[in-house]
Design goal:
single chain, 330 residues, mainly alpha, two-stranded antiparallel sheet, disordered N terminus
């Protein structure tokens, strides 16, 4: 199921009065990150390069610049990260994990290269991570988290193999993680947090079972995450962070409550987090930029229909045209 809500109409002029998105500099920033192989940031990020590649490539696609990378080189590297189990590691030679497996599938989807996968091998790996109670482990070591439920459902949905798992049990487990004020935790009784809420709402959206959510109650809690600066936080009494522009907005769109926040102030907050000289977006104004926040900042602006950005699907976290190609061949 796709979700692509038509938000309130905004003209380019209104958005641009809040400050300009330095799109070309963001493109150059993303391309420059890939070339830095030996600096400290690259070494620290080596274990989750697959995630970083997904963030960077999706950013380029939202900016209409995916054609600036070598498709064959990226696809070849992704496939070198696949383990004999069917899952993918964060880099070549690294152990497989469901987190990196979704990013690998999403990268291949961006390029229209899902055909290079042995779908049975990948989906059998994912199905093998489902536990008796319906939850999912992230890898062979058994950590359970609702993030892994969403990731598994998203992967299997993209590959059209939801029948490989017990969807009813998967949904039942997610619902068991719901809290009294409408949010969701990582496990039953766990504290509500925006990352977990997105994962649970997204999972229920992908399975067409959003009726399990009290939309007004959850919508109220999500809207309470907007602070005076216009930014959003992940939990009460925390600082705002650009990445929550995605986690909150996508959740609000999926439950049809996005009109409850001040979109103009949020746009201004994201724009203020740009490095206008060198490109990239940070968590908060004047902090150091990184690929993670650059992607989620631009994804948030896409959900807000900022001009010049492709539309992104709030459930699949992929551009809408990519999702249409997967499911409708368009």
């Amino acid at each position: 199921m796709r979700f692509c809500e038509n938000l309130e109409e905004k003209t380019s002029g209104v958005w641009l009065q809040m400050g300009e998105l330095v799109a070309e500099k963001h493109v150059q920033y993303i391309l420059s990150v890939e070339k830095r192989k030996d600096d400290l940031v690259s070494v620290v990020m080596e274990h989750l390069r697959m995630n970083g590649t997904y963030w960077g490539l999706t950013t380029l696609d939202l900016l209409g610049k995916l054609d600036t990378v070598d498709v064959d080189e990226v696809v070849s590297w992704v496939m070198e990260c696949q383990h004999e189990s069917g899952g993918f590691g964060g880099n070549i030679g690294h152990d497989p994990h469901i987190l990196y497996t979704l990013s690998a599938v999403q990268i291949l989807a961006l390029f229209g290269k899902l055909n290079v996968l042995d779908v049975d091998k990948v989906t059998n790996y994912i199905a093998g991570l489902q536990n008796e109670d319906g939850s999912f482990s992230g890898d062979m070591w058994g950590e359970v988290d609702t993030r892994f439920s969403y990731i598994s459902l998203c992967c299997l949905s993209i590959l059209r193999c939801l029948n490989k798992i017990n969807v009813e049990k998967a949904v039942s487990y997610i619902v068991s993680c719901k809290n009294l004020y409408g949010g969701f935790g990582s496990t039953p009784g766990g504290e509500s947090h925006l990352g977990q809420i997105f994962c649970c709402v997204g999972a229920l959206a992908l399975t067409g079972l959003l009726h399990h959510i009290d939309k007004d109650l959850l919508g109220w809690w999500l809207c309470e995450r907007q602070v005076k600066s216009g930014g959003l936080n992940g939990r009460p009494e925390k600082l705002p962070d650009v990445c929550y522009s995605w986690w909150v907005l996508s959740s609000l769109i999926m439950i049809d409550r996005v009109h409850w926040i001040n979109k103009e102030k949020l746009v201004q907050f994201i724009i203020d987090c740009q490095d206008t000289e060198n490109g990239g977006i940070s968590d908060r104004p004047d902090d150091a930029v990184d690929v993670y926040h650059t992607y989620f900042g631009l994804a948030g602006l896409s959900l807000l229909q900022y001009p010049g950005l492709k539309a992104i699907d709030p459930a699949y976290a992929l551009p809408v045209d990519v999702v249409n190609r997967i499911f409708f061949g368009k």
